[in-house]
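Why this split exists: single-chain examples teach little about how molecules sit against one another. For that reason, every record in the complexes split bundles all components of an assembly together and asks for one structure covering all of them. Below is a record exactly as it appears in the raw files.
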Amino acid sequence: MTHRPLPAAFYARETELVARELLGAVLECTVRGTRCRGRIIETEAYTGEEDLACHAAAGRTARTEVLYGPPGRARYFIYGMYWCVNAVTRRAGLPSAVLIRAVEPIEGIEAMRRRRGHRPDRELTNGPGKLCQAFGITGPLHHGVSLLSSPLRILEGERIPDDDVAVTPRVGISKAVSDPLRWIRKGRDLK
DNA sequence: TAAAGGATTTTCT
DNA sequence: GAAAATCCTTTAC
């Protein structure tokens, strides 16, 4: 497969479309010379200020500033003690992003096992906080950086066909809207 | 197998 | 004071 980063124009589209198209793309992170790669298999769209589950619903603050910036940048959100990867979408001034919820390890699995405490392989990267821990993604190092260049980027991958993709409402989010906004590759065996 | 609670920090009511 | 885009451990059935 090619190893080209997805261009900024990829992210400068409707958030739901970007969430769909990111399935199959390759998340890459290099930390101190160790490179990890994983194929994206689950994403979630946070569509803007009108989406109550989106952090931008709270308005423009230091915490949400990156969401308002240009597309193609990474945003990391901390829930108490965990970080998550987001890809900012649309254009500057329109706060929205796609949360990367799960990947399949491709490269650097030894580092992932080490960072994740040698759990079963299926539990290395099957959650938004877990995959960050596995990849060594931390806030100060990665918050707000471009996804188009190292150390953290998203590469072109093999497209996952529509027949293998399911769209569902978000689950476990009290402010979630009923619209289907979570994209999952069918048949994944991660839970 | 399911449910409950803790860790931890920012934000809102 | 409570909840949040989570995860892990403990406790109960």
